[in-house]
Each structure stands twice: as C-alpha cells, then as structure tokens.
Amino acid sequence: MIKLRDIIIIICLLGAAAGIYIYNDKGEGSRVQIDYDGYKYAEIEFMAFADDEEQRIHINGTTVVIDKYGAYFAHSDCKDKICVRSGKINRVGQTVVCLPLRVSIRIEGEKAEFDGITG
Amino acid sequence: MRASRAAIILLLILAAVIPVTLGGCGAKKQTDSFFAMGSYITQTVYNAENTLLESVKSDITQADANISIRIDNSYISLLNKEKTAVFDTQTYNILYSVVEFCGVTNGIFDISLLSLTDLWDIEGESPSVPNQDYIITALQSTGYENIIFGDNNTVTLNGGVWLDLGSVGKGYACDLAVEAYKEVGVSGIIAVGGSIGVNGKKPDGDNFLVGIRDPFSAAVSDIFAGIKLASGFVSTSGSYEKYFVEENKVYHHIFNSKTGYPVENELVSVSVVCDNGMLSDMLSTACFALGIDDSLSLLKQYGAEAVFVTNDKKVVITQGLRFITTVYADFEVIYI
C-alpha cells in the first residue's frame, strides 16, 4: 500500500521537477560561442563575469565585446556594419553574423526561446 | 508488500524526472553552422546519424556552386557570360520553376534585374540614386521573357539580360535540408539567413517556434512575433535591412521591375509560410512588391499564408496562421 508519506514525497519530487523545468524555460543564455568561417573560434561563459568585467576579442577585422549581460560586435571593418547595428544579444539561440568577414556570435544554453529567426 | 511499494515509488520518481531531463538534454541534439548561398547557415537536428549534417552541407555547397553569381564557373555565371549554356538537370529545373513563377506574377517577381540592381549598387560600396536615363536604359536589359529554355537542358539569354538566383538560393537550400531530414525521418530545423525550413516536432513534442524580427528595430534581439511551425517553410522580405539614405529618403533593395525604383507601398515586411522553401522566398518578395490586397490571391493560389507588417505598425495575419502566431509587440493585429 502507498502511504500518505509516500504521496507527499512524490508531490515534492514532481514539484521539484516542474521547478527545474520552469527554470530551464527562461531562455537566458550563459555562454557565447564565436565562430570564424563556420568553425568554433571561442566559447566564453559570461554569466560568471563581474559587473564591470569585459572581454574583447579581435578576429578577422571585427571586435566582439563580451560582458556579464551578453555579447555584441563593437567594431567591424566590413562596409555595411549590419553586425554592429544589430546590438547586444543575451538569450539562447540569438545570433549576430558579420557576413562579409564571416564572423558570428551565438548565445548558447539549455533552452532556446526561439528555434529559428526569420527576417 | 514493502518491495513492490518501493518499486512503485521508484517508477513514479522516474516518471517525474525523465521528461525533464529528456526535454533538456536526453535527445541527441546536433548543430552545425557554415557559410553558403551568401548567408550564414545553421542546422539543428535531433537523434540523427552523425553523417546527416555533413551530407546536407555538401548538398547545399554544391547547389551554391551551381547557381551563385559570386562563383565564376557556376552555371548561372557561365550563362551570364556566354548567353547560352548547357545546365545540369538540377539547375535547369530550379531555373525553370523560378521563371514559371516570374510568369505567374507577370514579372512583379523577376530574377533578371541584375542590370538594374548593379546600377543602384545597393549591396556595394557606394549606392546612390542613378540618373533616370540610366534607369530607363538598364530596364531595357531586364525581363524574364528573355530566358529561353531549349532541348537537352540548354538555356539562352536574349536582350542582354543578366540573371541572379540569389533571391531563391536560401529557400532552395532549406528545401535540400528538409528533404534530407524527411528521408531519414529526423526532426530538424535549418536557417539560411532569414529563410527557415522545418521538419517534424522537437523531442519534447512541441512544434518548432520561429521568431520574426521586428522590422522597426536594427537589433536582432528584437522579435515582434512567433510562429509555431509544424513541418514547413518561412521566409521574410523587408525594406529594413539593406538600404541607403539619400536626401532624407530611404532606398531599399526590393525593386519595382517596371519603374526601376525601390518598391513603395504600405509594407515594411512580409513573412510567408508555405510547403516549399524556394516558393516561400519567391512569394515573400512578390508579396512585398504587391502590397497586402494584391498578395492575397497569389498566396491562395499556392496555399500559402503570411504575416504582413505595415509602416503604421499594423500586423496583418492571414487566417491559416491565426492560431499558431503570437504577436508580442504592441502592434495593432488584424486577421484577414
């Protein structure tokens, strides 16, 4: 026979599982992957950065800046500057690409808010 | 009995925890990114053989080598140079169906506008508004009717026209990927620039969620709506990404094939959902040029649906997308 105590244990476990699930569902990323020419160049955990900490990565004429709150192209030698105009990203799956210089930044994490972006 | 009670509790614990772990990382997820079709391409597949992503990548790279005008010895480059060329069957069939679509839209969608777009230099170093006389001259070397299909995969160009399949390459790449996923029964999504192809559902049983970028914001993180897509394709055309400003007027990259100037109507973007990638690319460009009212019959003809955004911040959504599209931004939403 299942006793009341067992039922309480089960409810607690289900609650904890749901909690984990909701936590996963938030979509906030913890690390950024930088690719050059389609190959991984660097992967950086930014969640653990201090408030005023920032890392600058120079790659093929672009400058990618990473701080506690995300990553962005601060500079690019390309002519259209679409990558710089694209701003900062911090949610899983968000990507900015400098197409002319073949550098991309993408936020990685467990659960993406969107599986793809059109536009 | 104590043992069976313990077993039941254990099973219940597993039942509670397994869906959480499976949803997160239990299913084998593979992602790969590369450059082709003038775009950044990302594929994600679940529980696939290790070779699938590589094989799709090689198919797309090969198709790019056949159709790109940036590649010197592609079939399209050869045709532009020699004015007559013998294609392989794949490229011939692509061009044939694209030209057929140009005919359906009476040239509203036209892949032979290279003389015109080169004159504007819209993707180049220094775009500017050309002299009207030059525009009229350039228009004389355009027109899909000048693409002639002969026997044995021969294609000929008349009237000094130049072709560019750039506007359909992204969607075609999505077609290649989704076809490959389907063949082996694998769930996956491919993004070729802003063109998306989807097969199946995610491991957690949800449909893939495709975000649509806010056309009023330069930031890629600004998404104004999401479409939950069961297998299918989405493509977006808008005036907001490639453009230049001259004397306070914005000139974007989608041209009216009759006037030679950028299309001017109520739209800032349109996203089209349908069951073929190349078609979703062509329809989004054509619908952008046509405006909302004239797009509806074309969409209906192809069983396609659309999300239009107007310059006064209205979102117009066709009925087929009503229950799978969510608008997050504070725009007025209209269903038609």
Find the biggest chain interface: A-B, 41 and 51 residues
The string of secondary-structure elements of chain B, in order, is HEEHHEHHHEEHEEEEEEEEHHEEEE
Order of helices and strands of chain A: HEEEEEHEEE
- According to DSSP, the number of beta strands of chain B is 17
Helix content of chain B: 25-40%
Q: What structural class should be given to the helix and strand makeup of chain A?
A: alpha+beta
How many whole angstroms does the radius of gyration of chain B measure? Answer: 23 Å
Q: Order of strands in the sheet with the most strands of chain B?
A: 1-2-6-7-10-13-14-15-17
Proper CATH architecture of the domain at 71-164 in chain B: Orthogonal Bundle
**According to CATH, what is the topology of the domain at 31-108 in chain A?**
mini-chromosome maintenance (MCM) complex, domain 2
Specify the overall morphology of chain B.
Answer: globular
Q: So, the CATH homologous superfamily of the domain at 71-164 in chain B?
A: ApbE-like superfamily
Q: Give the averaged pLDDT of chain A, no decimals.
A: 84
- Which consecutive residue ranges of chain B, at least 5 long each, have pLDDT under 50? 19-24
The major pleated sheet of chain A works out as: 4 strands, antiparallel
At the third CATH level, what is the topology name of the domain at 71-164 in chain B? T-fold
Can you walk through the features of this model?
With 119 residues, chain A is α+β, with helices and mostly antiparallel strands. Chain A has a domain at 31-108: N-utilization substance G protein NusG, insert domain (mini-chromosome maintenance (MCM) complex, domain 2, Sandwich), CATH 2.60.320.10. Helices cover 21% and strands 38% of the residues of chain A. Chain A has helices spanning 4-24, 82-85; strands at residues 31-36, 39-45, 54-59, 62-67, 70-76, 95-98, 103-108, 116-118. Chain A has a 4-stranded antiparallel β-sheet with strand order 2-1-7-6. Chain A has a 3-stranded antiparallel β-sheet with strand order 3-4-5. Chain A is elongated, with a radius of gyration of 19 Å. Chain B has 336 residues and is α+β, with helices and mostly antiparallel strands. Chain B has a domain at 71-164: Orthogonal Bundle (T-fold), CATH 1.10.3980.10. Chain B contains 9 helices and 17 strands. In chain B, the strands form 4 sheets. Chain B has a 9-stranded mixed β-sheet. In chain B, strand 4 (147-149) and strand 5 form a beta hairpin. The longest helix of chain B is centred in the first third of the chain and has 25 residues, at 2-26. Chain B starts with a helix and ends with a strand. The model of chain B is unreliable at 19-24 (pLDDT under 50). At the A-B interface, helix 1, strand 6 and strand 8 of A face helix 1, strand 1, strand 2, strand 6 and strand 7 of B.
